[in-house]
Amino acid sequence: MSGRHVALIVLLAAIWGGAYTLIRNAVPAFGPIGLSAARLTFAAAIMWGYLKATGERVRWRRDGKALVVVGLFGAALPFPLFAYGATQWTAGVLAIVNATVPLWGAIIARFWLGDRITPVAVAGLALGIAGVALLARTDSAPLPAAAAVPLAASLAASLCYALAGVATKALGASVPAPALATGVLIIGAFLNVPLTVLDPPREITWFALANAALLGLLASALATVLYLWLIQQIGPTRSMTVTFLIPLWGIFWSALLLNEPVTATMLAACGLVLAGTALVMVGQRKALPKA
Fold first, then answer.
1. Hey, which residues does 116 pair with through a beta bridge?
2. How many CB atoms lie within 10 A of CB 290?
3. 285 in helix, strand or coil?
């Protein structure tokens, strides 16, 4: 990776680490689905305007398969799932859960792209699982359903992000990043907006609107374009290294802006997940070309 790629990974981690703080601020007013619909619609409008200004366009017929698959797993599903997780868990915890994306990605790439998983990567997967288990641990009782289900939803969102990353490389490598990002956001908005009838927004405040707008502008529009471009440049596995830094930024922003506690359990779980991710990244091997 070049210095530009590394700088971009740090910037993406700072944006996405802060996204969980914005979600925590906005989800009580919008609800999980309402917040996802709002940020996706706003981000899609921004990107559509950008394409119009630059003369680019989304080629739905040619790139439809990539747009639908990446849009479903990269926006439509994970956004409301993580927003639902934010109803019970702190921004720092959600950022740690997000660090499991490369763990899921290694498994998906094994079956989709033919990448090999070495014993080192298997050990990394075990460490990652241990970290999530520690994160869910309570001192005296099983995790209550009110917290367990949102945690499971957040893990499912990470799985979706991993699927989207591998799908971007497998299906959308030739699609220009701005067009791919715009199509992905439009698909996500198209699938989320109608569902707001099932979970309508609560009392919308200017504070919640500002946080939703920042989510749409930074975490959805700008970061999506940058991340898809990064995947096309250096591949999904290396791009997913951004998740090494997201927990650190997430914990930092949540403590600074929300005054959320940083516990020893959180730090230990974060260490296990990141160590597992590192082993997976080292131990994963690309598929050998056929003779």
1. 285
2. 5
3. strand
